[in-house]
Structure formats: structure tokens, C-alpha cells
Amino acid sequence: RDVASAATDVSGIADELGAVVAAVEYRVAPEHPFPTPLEDCHDALVWLAGTDEVDQARVAIGGASAGGGLAAALAQLALDRGDVDPVFQLLTYPMLDATASSPSYDAFAEGYGFSSEKSRWYFDEDLPPERNGATGQATDRAEHTHRGHRVLVADACDPVRPPGEHVALLG
To answer: What residues does 62 pair with on adjacent strands?
Structure first.
């Protein structure tokens, strides 16, 4: 998805809430493996939160698929660095478990619009070789993430749903 499409998706919500919305064009793998996309998102979050148009007490972040995983990791990174504390996360079918080992990856491996094989391929592309097969950052420390609320949106037959539910329940 391109940045313009993502911005269009949330512009109605932003108008309704009177909120400032930004869609981040972050660098992607395989040319720029993790953590480069996360650092790009963090730089954008810190910059945006520092502008006069943004109320630091109302900062929210979100993303879909790989962007959902980035949003969860971004909340943790911002908390670790002490620069921004998002009060809300919207994680839409987030990719959070780089091991792709939850039973759902077998139960919903094929036939539901997104295969377990494709999910594993994305993690292989996104993570540098030394992190392949390692648990993703967002699920490693999600129980320590931010003080706000977290909403998970996922399909019932989605291989990424159970790891996302785990993270959502911790928030």
C-alpha cells in the first residue's frame, strides 16, 4: 500500500475527531531490513509529536499487517526512549510473531486469503538473517508497552490473530 492510500483511509476519522493524521513512508525490506522501518516510523512520530499542531496527551498510532507490527514495536520503542507515550494503538491484523509458530499458522495455513507460507516469507524478508526465527520485538516485551488502550482488528481465520490477541489483551 502506498502512503496516499493509507492517508485517505484515515482522513475521515481524523476529520471527525479533529485530529492530525500522518501516514509514514518508511523504507522497506529487503533493501532496508528491520529495524530500519521502525527507526523511520520513530523519527516521524517524534517529529510529529513535537509540532505545535499535536497534543502530546492525545497521540495515537496504528497500522495494518506489517504496519500493525511496526505500530506495536513503535509504542515500545517510544516508551523505552522516553520521548512519546501513545495513548492508543490500533493494530489491524498485525504481524507480531516472527517465529510464525502459533497453532493458527497450521490451522489457517491455506484458503483464507493469507497463507502461513506468505507470512513466513514476509518475516524472512523483513528481518535480518541473525533475527530470522527469533520472536518478534512486539511480542517479546508487549506486556511493558504504554499506558494507553490497544484495539486489535483481525479475521477469525487469520494466522496472525492469536499473537495479536495476546498483545491486545496485555494492553
So the answer is: 90
The chain-wide mean pLDDT, for the chain, equals: 76
pTM: 0.76
- Count H helices and E strands in the chain, helices first: 7, 3
3-state secondary structure of 148: coil
Count other C-beta atoms under 10 Å from residue 5's C-beta.
Answer: 9
Q: How confident is the model at residue 30 (pLDDT cuts 50, 70, 90)?
A: confident
pLDDT in tens, 65-114: 888 888 988 998 998 999 998 888 888 878 777 777 777 777 777 776 76
Distance CA 168, CA 34 (A): 22
Contact partners, residue 130, CB within 8 Å, separation at least 6:
none
CB 159 within 8 A of CB 116: yes
- For residue 49, what pLDDT is reported? 94
- Write a three-state SS string for 88-130: EEEEECCCCCCCCCCCHHHHCCCCCCCCHHHHHHHHHHHCCHH
Which among 124, 120, 61, 69 has a CA at the least distance from the CA of 93?
69
Cα distance between residue 89 and residue 62, in whole Å: 5
